[in-house]
Write a structure and sequence with these properties.
By secondary structure, the chain is of the alpha/beta class. It folds into 4 domains: 2-21 and 180-322, MoaB/Mog-like domain (Molybdenum Cofactor Biosythetic Enzyme, Chain A); 24-46 and 142-178, Molybdopterin biosynthesis moea protein, domain 2 (Alpha-Beta Complex); 56-127, Molybdopterin biosynthesis moeA protein, domain 3 (Beta Complex), CATH 2.170.190.11; 332-400, Beta Barrel (Beta-clip), CATH 2.40.340. It contains 6 helices and 24 strands. It has helices spanning 7-16, 159-167, 208-218, 232-245, 263-269, 304-322, and strands at 2-5, 24-26, 35-36, 40-41, 56-59, 73-81, 95-99, 111-114, 124-127, 149-151, 175-178, 183-188, 192-193, 204-205, 224-228, 248-252, 273-279, 288-292, 295-300, 332-336, 349-356, 359-361, 379-383, 395-400. A 7-stranded mixed β-sheet has the order 1-17-18-19-16-12-15, with helices on both faces. The structure holds adenosine monophosphate (AMP) and magnesium ion (MG).
Length: 401
């Protein structure tokens, strides 16, 4: 087991030991947010035909030479083409076709003039300006060409990708994609009352499980939740059983050095292969990563902000690796602080912040037990080890949530 490692090394170990889930065949809506396990080749040109990008007249550019509002060129209007029509008549010199956005450009025409640049008269229309060949002209295959690579394996099928898929006529075609992982979120802590319970003295409500489950739902994952007592044997048994039922287990609590930090005992009892403990970052330093029956188990510190931040920094990479995107990274950016950060940082520290209009404000309340101040935050500021207190205006790096 490695210990006291950098975040980057921890992510490398997670990637090294987390295989993508075996692909399944999915189509259409079922592909949403899934990562493709195959390349997808376009079976057609999109658009399938040359088409007009605007409402006007399709014509031969050479016919418009010298046209101006004072000296319009007169062209015979042969037919009207709306989107969905198919042109029947090739245009001869001196002819044009009335055409709407999305309609196929008729043979013989090589440009489209917008109707505002004509007198819109019928059956002979006056053209007010000269056009170059292929002006206002959309070529077949302008979006993608038959036989081209539409999506490489590893593409996550977001809403736009689904639109592209539909536009290629592949909506009903089964494609090989990695399933979304079945995730168990488990909390430990004898002090935890469940939502709805009345608090006994010394108790607090369990907030990590509802919060992380909601975060998983935002990411499109319906995670199961469980609470386990601070009892190494019970936790070991629950871990072994869960490893058989889920693709990964993410726990909170019990990983530090106190008497009730039972994962040090529970993991060996569950025959876990322990890969690391303690990562050089705050909050949530004592997090652990292990494999039980080959299944990844990420054990996060129980402090609510620590659990939330390390879920973002490590949990999401774990989920992405299972989903077939082992090299997924959050969006990183640099921006000036709008508010100071009053503490020096001996070690690397992640601080909640709000990125708005190009600068980052930090809320009051930075301790890892404080959760409310994270409401509305959309980034984690990455403060390097050895930083002094930071003044407003300091450029910082941040991870977008
Ligand atoms: P632990 O990581 O078990 O040492 O817990 C660290 C702190 O986080 C303690 O104050 C716990 O009471 C608190 N904590 C642990 N688990 C949860 C949870 N699920 N919800 C809210 N607070 C928790
Ligand atoms: Mg605890």
């Amino acid at each position: 087991m490695e210990t006291g490692i950098t975040l980057e090394r921890a992510l490398e170990l997670i990637r090294l030991h987390t295989a993508p889930l075996p692909p399944v065949e999915l189509a259409g809506n079922w592909l949403q947010d899934h990562v493709l396990a195959q390349d997808v080749i376009a079976p057609m040109d999109q658009p399938p035909f040359d088409r007009s990008p605007l409402d006007g007249y399709a014509l031969r550019a050479e016919d418009s030479l010298g046209a101006s509002p004072d000296h319009p060129v007169l062209l015979e209007v042969r037919e009207t083409l709306c989107a969905g029509d198919w042109p029947q008549i090739p245009l001869n010199p001196g002819q044009c076709a009335r055409i709407m956005t999305g309609a196929p450009i008729p043979p013989g025409a090589d440009c489209v003039i917008r109707q505002e640049d004509t007198d819109r008269a019928h059956p002979r229309v006056g053209i007010f300006r000269a056009l170059a060949p292929h002006e206002n002209y959309c070529f077949a295959g302008e979006d993608f060409q038959n036989g081209s690579l539409l999506f490489p394996a590893g593409t996550r099928m977001d809403s736009v990708a689904l639109g592209v898929l539909a536009s290629a006529g592949l909506w009903e075609t089964p494609l090989s994609a990695h399933p979304r992982p079945k995730v168990l979120l488990a909390g430990t802590g004898d002090e935890l009352a469940q939502p709805g319970d009345t608090l006994r003295p010394g108790q607090i409500y369990n907030s990590n499980l509802p919060q992380l489950a909601a975060r998983c739902r935002q990411l499109g994952l319906e995670a199961a939740t469980a609470w386990w007592p601070d009892d190494p044997r019970a936790v070991a048994e629950a871990l072994s059983e869960s490893a058989g039922l889920f693709d990964c287990v993410i726990t909170t609590g019990g990983v530090s050095v106190g008497d009730k930090d039972i994962f040090h005992q529970a993991l060996p009892l569950a025959d876990a292969q322990r890969l690391f403990w303690r990562v050089q970052l705050k909050p949530g330093t004592p997090l652990m990563f292990s494999l039980i029956q080959g299944k990844p188990v990420l054990s996060l510190s129980g402090n609510p902000f620590a659990a939330a931040a390390t879920f973002e920094l490590l949990g999401r990479s774990l989920l992405s690796a299972l989903e077939g995107q082992p090299h997924w990274q959050p969006v990183r950016l640099s921006a000036p602080l709008a508010t100071p950060f009053p503490k020096a940082s001996g070690g690397r520290r992640f601080v909640r912040g709000v990125l708005r209009d190009g600068s980052i404000s930090l809320p009051d309340g930075h301790s890892s037990g404080q959760l409310r101040s994270q409401v509305g935050c959309n980034c984690l500021v990455d403060i390097p080890a050895g930083s002094p207190a930071l003044e407003a205006g300091t450029m910082v790096k941040a991870v977008l949530l």
